[in-house]
Specification:
Death Domain, Fas; 0% strand; single chain; 73% helix; mainly alpha
Length: 193
């Protein structure tokens, strides 16, 4: 069975050594680009396997490689970056994310973040669905419901529990959006073709 991108990431993180692994996690925490990873989430990472899981869950299989390469270069691990770059070129192909025939590797939720914040109307129904499916905790559910405006609720949902839940959370949000606001999803998907 050919190695996946996640396998190659795990091997790279194992080869980093303790000092460079610490530097990598600090640079990952300090990234300004979305999606960002919270300090508390990074602190839970104990080994190479945990870090590979975090990278794939946050950035998707297609996005984890480029982010890893970027950080490896920043912390001057050029040899590991070159080796990873060579290896992920041979990695098993990745199926595109949700959406009809999605040509892009970027998840629907990530691509449409700004539009979702501005246009989602029935946030409470989405929160109900996500809480029922145990994608968000009761505490997150309550905190988000307490926000005063719909855009603030969506922003808090996207930046908090959905970001932490990675691809699984984004997939669940996508399904909840299709259920509660199918015309919005259809409109956004048609704009991206």
């Amino acid at each position: 069975m050919p190695k996946t991108i996640k396998d190659h990431l795990e091997n790279t993180f194992e080869d980093l050594g303790e000092g460079n692994l610490k530097k990598f996690k600090i640079k990952l925490r300090d990234r300004k680009e979305e999606p960002r990873i919270r300090q508390a989430t990074i602190e839970k990472v104990k080994d190479a396997l945990d870090l590979a899981d975090l990278m794939v869950n946050t950035f998707t299989l297609n996005g984890a490689g480029p982010v890893t390469l970027e950080i490896l270069e920043v912390i001057n691990c050029h040899e590991l970056a070159a080796e990873l770059r060579e290896n992920i070129g041979d990695a098993a192909p990745v199926v595109p994310g949700p959406g009809p025939g999605a040509p892009s590797t970027e998840h629907f939720i990530d691509k449409n973040r700004t539009e979702l914040i501005a246009r989602v109307n029935n946030v409470d129904a989405i929160l109900d669905e996500l809480h029922q499916k145990k994608v968000i905790s009761f505490e997150d559910y309550s905190n988000i419901r307490a926000e005063k405006t719909k855009p603030n609720k969506m922003r808090e949902l996207l930046m908090g529990p959905i970001n932490s839940a990675g691809t699984r959370g984004k997939d669940a949000l996508y399904q909840a959006l299709k259920k509660s606001d199918p015309l919005l999803v259809e409109d956004l998907e048609s704009q991206r073709k």
